[in-house]
Amino acid sequence: MVVVRSRRLLVVAAVAAALACAADAYDRITQHADGGHAHLLPRVLAAVFALCAGAAAYLAFVDRSRRDRPREKDMRLLAVGLAVLWGGQSVGYIATAPSAAMWQGWVEQVPLLVAVPMIGTALVRICWPSRMSAADARTALLDSVVAVLGFAVLWWGWVVTQLWQYPPGGRAFENLDQAVMFGLGAVVLVIATISRRIGSLPFPQLLLLAGGVMVQVLSDALGQTIPGADNSSAITWSILGYVVAVSMLVAMALRPAVEVETPWQRAARERLSIATPIVMVVPAGVIVISAAASDDYGLEGAVGIVSMVLLLALLAAVLLARLAAAAELRRVQESAVAEVLAVRTREGWFKALVGDSADGMLVVDAGGRVLYSSPRFERDAAVALREDGTWPLSEVLVDLDRAGVALLLAQVAADPSQSGPYDLLVRGRDGGELEMEAVIRPVADVELDGFVVTARDVSDARRLARQLANSRRRDELTGLLSREAFLAETAEHLDEQDERRRAGVVALDLERFAALNDGLGHAVGDQILLGVAGVIDRLPDEVHGAARMASDTFALLVMAEDCERVVVEVVEQLRQELKGLLLPDGREIEVEFHAGYVVSDPMRGDSAQWHAEAADLALARSRSSRNARLVGYREDMRDETERRLRAEAQLRRAIAEDRLEVHYQPVVRIADLVVTGAEALVRLRDEHGALVPPGDFIPLAEELGLIGQIGEAVLRRACADTARLSESVGSPLHVAVNVAVDQVQQSLPFTVRSVLEDTGLPASRLALEITESTLADTSRPTQEILGALRSMGVSVSIDDFGTGFSSLSYLARLPVDGLKIDRAFVSRMGSNEESFTLARVVVQLARELGLHTVGEGVETREQLDMLRGMGCDYSQGFLHSRPLPLAEYEAFLREGLLAALPADQG
User: Fold this and answer.
1) Strands 874-875 and 660-669, sheet pairing
2) Cα separation of 694 and 691, whole Å?
3) Rounded mean pLDDT of 879-902?
4) Is the peptide bond before 421 cis (omega within 30 degrees of 0)?
5) What share of the chain is helix, strand, coil (3-state, %, to 5)?
6) Which of 13, 361, 596, 903 could staple 374 via S-S, CB 3.0–4.6 A?
């Protein structure tokens, strides 16, 4: 975004500079054709141009610095120098605009004096080759000195003494101007001379950079050597030359940071470097010899002419010799180097060094031609050697053509720190593809101007890494996304959403999967999960991702315009298809699930993790609800979760601190009103000693998986208390203990047997009360568990009978001994005929099946009499006693309070 803004400003600055020049040209033609130009408008236009030129150059090179990391600091220094130069001149033009003077030297000279050191330093550093050897550096510096000295002679002999115009009173500033312009010209010669090795500035950019600075110098010089050309502080013909200079510099800055040179351009850059000092010395020699010869044609003049001719011939010979030497060096580098390498690589020491190396080694010239390849590389890669033993590197690369290889090498040449490693896909000899990790290092010496490439085959390692990554990304059993991969997928889609198309995350878990997995076996449990995954795969296209988040928990990612509606439709489709899930063994099973979801809000910018947590919160609410199978997320759920977490912590702490109590509600045999035992009911005391209602902690314990721990503790205490009380009161007491759904597992019979053996309570005096929904599961494992309990002598009763969903026809097949008529029917028997009839039918049916019955919630004498009339066996309720702590229960038994029942409380 910053780069785009800078380029827009650059365009604005360039257009403004062009308009300022056009306006001044129009003013010159129409209003001041006579050359009088010391007026306000031209100077303001000059200021506008200079300001815009400085801004354009500054923005262009700052933009280049962001793209050209190796030269970043130097590009910024050049940007500041150009801004100081033209920005300072703009300030000078504005300051002198009201003045009637034709010219004031400080306007241009002060900014030049400040800016030129920065510009010169930046230019040399930008153009200095990154891999120049010490010998090359000495040669380049010597050539630079020769070129600068020759230029000094030219500048003094042709420009300063012959052509430079000095306005009245301006000689001091003009002398400074001459020195500064000479310095800029000398910098141009230096950068042209040193650009001779790989890592130099590409030839097109070198021409633009050096040409732009030289146009600036020549424009300034022409402005002072053409009479009347620069006689005012306005846009003059020399300043119009500055427009060209700015354009060339900006064009250079906007070119790619890494640019591939053609062979012709590379040769031209090297020839320019070699020829520059000679080109400067030839005319300088002419000037020196001309100065030595007098104006007449006497002996001295004849000697001078002959000397000049001889010098020119000598310099021409030197130039031709240097160019021939450069051409010969290039020929050696391009052809003879391959032969030299071939000879050297056949030597024993070299074979010992690289012959058995696990890495492939290549020597590549600047054009991407492989001059040498090690035996290991030639053995693995599909190398096709040419007659001269070389071959193009691009021929064995799958993902890079000739241009791509050239660009890669140019990048390494420009910045040696970018040597790699690079991932290269190489064609193998067996027709396959090799993944190689390559390091590319530039080399510059007399024999070679190119690169050494070291490549290692990492195909096996990469393949293994991809397999490991895929295993982390995919669930091993179902093939669905893992949790981490799902979150990453969700993050990507959240970035793509907008006001219309939103993302929805659905979390769902299977009901009673743990019981099915344990009861039917883990193999069948895996088949259930695979079946669920198969159904998920067939969901509509709006489902963009699906994951198995945990054992039996799944997640869906939905993207749609009406996202909430689509979520509801997708969940309903999933529910319908899972109603008849067919297992591999031919059995059909009905899979139910709870689900929660959240629809994203693009204005909030919440993370993928937040959406997953929000969907989990909604899922937790769905689990705790009897009716809502799909729940949407609401903000208040997090507060409820915090309260729930506090309750969870309190429950765990209460269990750890043994604050669980067992209270006993007596059970009375209706026929003779004798107490036969009691139902054991768990109670919890809070930190302040107050009793917590069972409805406040039992559901939480079931959800947290703590109900089994609590249930076993209650069973053990109830059996121990009953065994002791039976001996104490001299009567065989029974005890009924509730068993939660999660406790009905293969381990339950072993737990019960252990408790009975430890407490000494006979199995015949223990009754386990199990919910109707648990007993309605007619699967073989559940029946086997109940059968094992009954074979021990433990009786099994259905608790709260009539409130569940089982049919009365199941009673004949259920392995149970008794029924407890729910208090909801008992409490309405006196006022509701249907409740009375249903209770009577249950009692009669139980009698026919040989089951005993217990009426719960008996509170009045009338209800007791009705149950007696129906033939109900036992009664339990507040008519006899509320649930009592152990001490009060023991006192109740000892005092024989049943001898005098209270009067009718109805």
Assistant:
1) antiparallel
2) 9
3) 77
4) yes
5) 60, 15, 25
6) 361
